[in-house]
Amino acid sequence: MIKVLDKSVADKIAAGEVIERPVSIVKELVENSIDSGADSIVVEIKKGGKSYIRVTDNGSGIPADQAETAFLRHATSKINTAKDLNAIETLGFRGEALASIAAVTHTELVTKTADSTTGTRILIHGSEVLSNGKTGCPDGTTFIITDLFYNTPARLKFLKSDSAESSLIIDFMSMIALAFPKIRFRLINNGNIVFSSNGKGNLLSTILSVYKIGEYKDLVPVNYSFGENTVTGYISKPSLSRPSRRNQVFFVNGRVVNSKVIEKGVTEGYRERLFEGRHPICFLFIQTNPARLDVNIHPNKKEVRFDNESEIVSLISEGVKEALADDSAVIEAKAAPFRNVEYIRPEETQVDIKNILSSKPARVAENTVQEDAAAEILPAQPDHGQKREQAQEPECEQVHEHAVTRDSVEITIKEPAYKPFDFDMLRPTGAIFNTYITAVDEKCFYLIDQHAAHERVFYEKLVGEYMAEDKLKQPILTPIILEADPSVMVLMDEWVESLERMGFDISEFGGNSLIIREIPTFMTMSEAEDFLKEYLDGAADGVKKPNTVVIDKLITKSCKAAVKAHDHLSMDEINSLLNQLKACRNPFSCPHGRPTFIRFTMYEIEKMFKRV
Ligand code: ADP
Ligand code: MG
User: Fold this and answer.
1) What's the predicted TM-score (pTM) here?
2) For a tag on the chain, would you pick the N or C end, based on fewer CB atoms within 10 A?
């Protein structure tokens, strides 16, 4: 039998499409507040918004006789005729949000318009109006939403942890605060203020109040137009970069978007200013003709498509270049070049014996001198350690053959005479370019990448510390204070344990600050600080406590930042580094799989000089 669904069932079904999780409610309510002309909006959440969401604004309020109507499906004050659909300037217009929210929660509305002496209070549980009466209240509107999904338990199960849900809300609120710097936003999570923006319209001060990251005060402004397109906002100087694009926020015509096209523009703008794999921090606002934009290709409207893609790429890249051409940007970039050094693409970050082997052989083809071919990389070891004794060194004079196929890790080497590599025979002679240690043994000359070597040592010590029962910690006299993104802070439970296991003593220090009182013994203060910054940045993407693979990746990545390249090493320091490298389980490559050693056999050198 065909029946028309009763209203409460229909509302619940429709609600599922609009209200997926707590952040959806926050989004709808805050957008309504903005549409109401408010210049101050407070959002308070508890338990990730699952148990409590309050949104209070000082906007127009809803007249008493319309308050109940606002909860009807397709009830909106923002559209009268179909023609209006083409000229929408408000954030909402479908008239679905309140109906959907009320269907799956306990909703309380308190609202008052400026020209009315009393306000209205309405209580609705699952679409059913329990009460509608007068109340005293200030101008504006407050929604209090409790018991999300109390009547649709199946949906409740799909929600993530409280901290994960609050992280999504914090992210959303951060974006909306940036998009509307003229509105004062305050966000309260479980009784603590996450941020509070001043609403004075200054974007940089909004960025600083939302993120509370001191380094952001050095961001440089972007302001560039071309044709009908404009880009404004703030970007980091090349001296401040991150290993991921997480700290890049783009708005197109006021909406947060993800866009490969904009990313491409940014990358082009920074070309040659940043090393591969490093990403600047950007807050960019693009204004373009809405007619040349398709925002609806993704239901949550985060994806955007431009019909003039190449114009947008060059708009962004020119805007970025112009901003960076500013003198101050250039000088700083030179002053701190080392942070950016040597990042490599993620696909190269695996220790990949196949690649190392396929970059062989070390034969010089037909006696022509080829720089690359003359160098030979020591065999890296497929499994950490045990086989170290077998690390084999081909006799210099012999051309050797590898029966290695690209997709096989089996290494069969047609054996000439081999002997194990002997660290004790290695005699360092100095360093060149402040980067490569030079060394010789009886028949070969070696270049050792001091940075890669140090990174390997650092990595193995950290992993060792992580696995060890007793942590070798050192208390530090001046504690390190770090600031982290609010969205990282709420996930603290998820990442703090892994850092404690490495020997850090780290705790909250009010607001978004962290205080570090103890660090692993082998680290210097600056190494510890750089390591932690990088680690926290990566931790934002989630570290599940037991997931050692993820933790290992994070350690690998963060070591890169901690260890400086291009430092001048004294002979003592060189000796000590080589000794520590010798103690490593896998001394022949850095944690990212790049070689630490390159060997030039005497034979190859002689060949280059056409002596043989
Ligand atoms: P839409 O925003 O698409 O119009 P909603 O269901 O979100 O639909 O809201 C319905 C109506 O309720 C809005 O059109 C508006 O008139 C009124 N409204 C909702 N929230 C507020 C608010 N915070 N201040 C003033 N009016 C509001
Ligand atoms: Mg709305």
Assistant:
1) 0.60
2) N
